[in-house]
Write a structure and sequence with these properties.
By secondary structure, this protein is mainly β. It has a single domain, classed as GroES chaperonin (10 Kd Chaperonin, Protein Cpn10, Chain O). The chain is 10% helix and 38% strand. The protein is globular. The two termini are 28 Å apart.
Length: 104
Amino acid sequence: MIIRAIGDNILIRRLADNPHSLYDAYEVAIPHTPIEIPSTWQAKSMIGQVISCGRGTLTGRGFLIECSVKPGDVVIFDPEAGSEIAIGDETLLIIRESAILGVE
């Protein structure tokens, strides 16, 4: 099954089940970096790769504001945002663009 995001929704694949992998990634790049991950975010990963983006948001006057991310971007997002969907043996996440906190 092929799923495509619509509107201002974005389809994301979580990159790491363990949130400490963010620390490990930066530890390699910048040794002894003091990154602390809050205990409230340790249940789910907040790093993912964009699989699909919708066209964007329509303004009240009918103008289209395109998504600021594109497929392939690695993003940091609110771990409690969106809806998880299972496609085959993979679990993906659909979130709104406003739930994205940063782009790598």
